[in-house]
Amino acid sequence: MTVEVTAGVPAVDGVTLAIEVRGLSHAFERPDGSSLEVLRHVDVSVPRGRFVAIVGPSGCGKTTLLNLVAGIEEVQSGSVAVSGEVPRCGNQRVGYLFARDALLPWRTVLGNTELAMELAGVGKVERRARAMALLEEVGLAEMANAYPAQLSQGMRQRVAIARTLAPHPELVLLDEPFSALDAQTKLLLQDAFCRLWGRLGATVVLITHDLGEAVALGDQVVLMTSRPGRIKRVFDVALPRPRSIVDLPSEPEYHRIVQELWAELREEVARR
Ligand SMILES: Nc1ncnc2c1ncn2[C@@H]1O[C@H](COP(=O)(O)OP(=O)(O)OP(=O)(O)O)[C@@H](O)[C@H]1O
């Protein structure tokens, strides 16, 4: 493996990296003053444009890892680089989406979708056009003037997806964005997200507890150990794209990877 750096952006064997995590360890202080070791010597490289899913037992440090990449949490030990730079909270090139949307209740669907672009300084005409195009994609153009309180949970999450993707981020960090949805809405949104991602070409890191979702969406699935979280294994998902999220479960290769993942994850859950 050759690691080079060109104009500040690292590359491994000629592949440009969006994220490079090296020897990352992290601990939190417990209320009694003792230390809780959450991450231990984590190494992960995510090439630009790749869709990487992260799975692991509850409490193994997945969200902490994402927060360190987003610059929300400060690095204690090891290093994190996003496009070759130290992560910075509020970086407009990075979009972050959580399980529960955080829509502003006093703004309409359109106003919420435009928010991140407004902060990024995108002009009014362009931001309206981009927001409406995305609302169309997620099937909410007719609700553009509604307020969040008038929407279902699935609709709110669709607005949150549109808002996250509207500024065309280079990197999208997703923390269980589909977990609070009913089964059908989940499938529709996964499908819509996949289509949009295919068009935007962003790098995506998705945290999920749903192994099927990880395999259906990801190019790679990173499996973490129980706490303190380390990288146990990286699975390559060689399923062709574009993928139909609904039809994938009938593919033998999909089943093989999900079963292998579960066999290894089960050991970690039992250890916990
Ligand atoms: N700010 C904090 N202060 C103290 N402890 C924290 C803090 N954030 C997280 N933790 C603890 O660190 C551990 C890892 O949390 P984290 O949310 O990263 O795990 P996770 O793998 O995302 O969990 P889950 O799958 O259940 O969402 C947990 O035990 C959690 O209670």
Structure description:
- InterPro entries: AAA+_ATPase, ABC_transporter-like_ATP-bd, ABC_transporter-like_CS, ABC_transporter_ATP-bind, P-loop_NTPase.
- GO terms for molecular function: ATP binding.
- This is ABC transporter ATP-binding protein.
- Helix 2 packs parallel to helix 4 (153-165).
- The two termini are 34 Å apart.
- The chain has two domains: 3-93 and 169-271, 3-Layer(aba) Sandwich (Rossmann fold); 108-163, no CATH class.
- The strands form two sheets. A six-stranded mixed beta sheet has the order 7-8-9-5-10-11, sandwiched between helices.
- Residues 1-8 have low confidence and may be disordered.
- The protein has seven helices and eleven strands.
- With 272 residues, the protein is α/β, with parallel strands linked by helices.
- Bound molecules: adenosine-5'-triphosphate.
- The site of adenosine-5'-triphosphate has 11 residues, from strand 4 and helix 1.
Unreliable runs: 1-8
Q: Encode the helix/strand succession as letters.
A: EEEEEHEEHHHEHEHEEH
Numbering strands along the chain, what is their spatial order in the largest sheet? 7-8-9-5-10-11
Tally the beta strands. Answer: 11
What's the gist of this structure?
The chain is α/β, with parallel strands linked by helices and 272 residues long. The chain has helices at 62-70, 109-119, 124-137, 153-165, 183-200, 211-217, 252-271; strands at residues 3-6, 9-12, 15-29, 35-47, 51-55, 77-82, 94-97, 171-175, 203-207, 220-224, 231-236.
Sum up the structure in keywords.
alpha/beta; Rossmann fold; 2 domains; 7 helices; 26% strand; globular; disordered N terminus; binds adenosine-5'-triphosphate
